[in-house]
Structure formats: C-alpha cells, structure tokens
Amino acid sequence: MKTIRMDLNSFHTKVEILDQRTTFLEEKLDNAEYWGPDIWHLKQKVIDLEDRARRNNIHFYGIPEKMEVNNDVKNLLLTLIPRLLNISFVHPFELQRAHRIRSRTSTSTLASRPRSIIACLLRHEQVRQILTAARKHGPYDLEGHKVFIAADFSAETNAKLKAFPQLRPRLRKGDIKYGLLEPATMWITMDVNSRDYTEPEDLVRFLDSLDEQHMDSAPPDKTSMNSPLQLQKDPQSHCTSRLHVRTLRNSLTEIKQSTA
C-alpha cells in the first residue's frame, strides 16, 4: 500500500509538471496570436523598403565574360547599353556602380554561362526606359549571346513573381481576366468585380473556393469578390497547436480526477 501511495505521489508530481508546461505553451500561443499580425505587417514594410532601395538596380544576363577592359564593368555598360537597346536618353546615361555577381560556376563554363551583371543607375526614369524597351524588344543578341534584362527585387518579391504566373492557366480556365502590377500584385476581374492579390496563397484559396462551388453546381459567390478576405498567415499552424494543447490539458484533467 505504501508503494502504491508513493507511485501515486510521483505520478501527481509529474502531472503537475506537465500542467505547468501546458500553461507555458498556452501563454506562448497567446503571444504568437497577439503579435502575429503586427509581425506580418512589419515584415511587409521591410520587404517594401528593400524593393524601394533596389528600384534603381538592373540585372543584365548573358553579357559575355571579358568584354570589359580591365574589369571596368561600369564603363562597358555606359557604351554598350544605349547601342544594344538602340535607345537615347534625355539626360546623360550615368551609373553609380556596376559589377558582375559572384558565381560558383567553374572558369571553364563561364564562356557558355557568363556571370550576370548588376548595375545601379543614377536616374530612375532611365531604369523605367530600359526595362520598358527590354519587355518590348528583348532578349537582345550580342555576339551570338542572348542578353536578358530584368529589374532587381527582394527574394520575397521574386518568389511571388514566380508563383503568380503559375496560376494563369487556372484563371484562363475560369474565364477570369487578370494582370500583374508592379512589383508583385495580381489583379483579377470576374464579371464586373475586381480584386487585387498581393499574396499568391490568397489567390489560390479563392480559386479553390470557386472550384468547390462549381463542383456543387452552384454559381460563383460574387460577394466574395467585394468583401476582403479575412485570411491569417499560416492559420492552420496556430489552430493545430492550440488544439494539441487543449487536448493535453483535458487529458491531464481526466488523469487528476481519476487518481484523486
């Protein structure tokens, strides 16, 4: 009997420790849910600031190695770009800096895969002029090499720019008009309703909801186009974690009652 009582006391002690840890986890979850939206908005501001800091940068892909004299990439671009793009500028074409981006490509393959060049222009209107010309007439041929020109964005914005085009087949299938706004916002128009999406995940959820409505042979809910989506970033993670904590607490309560 004494041994059983000692085992029960030890068991109760362990249950109390688990209960304290469960309370700690609940407090952590409360903090995460409270600060989560603020952290997300701050992250968006940081991304926006980074994109704005890069707004005068341009990437040049495919310019052959060793075209620059004495590794002077800046002087190479000053003479090459107006001639290659066949454009003239109102103001003098000036660069703040330019260099090739370091690559792990071996020296033997640089001839076929030259390192890209990133340049920072002095005037933003010239950045717009170059990018507009590149969209209309690129890629350009330079000594048998294809030269591509692209804007410079943060890693997060680049990820969106890769994700949004993958949704075009679904939009066309649903007869939904769409377009991509800079830096990475996709607008859609369905019937007479329009909406902008800054997150590919939000657009995927909307398209999934339309697919479910079609499967139920019901017309699309037009009100969903007018009302803002109340979507929390990674909502499942918080819900699942809180469910696990509640399940653990209920189990601890049952154990306490059964051993009391």
Automatic annotation (TrEMBL):
Annotated Polar residues bias: 223-239
InterPro entries xref list: Transposase_22
Region (Disordered) location: 213-239
Protein name, per record: Uncharacterized protein
Native organism: Pleurodeles waltl
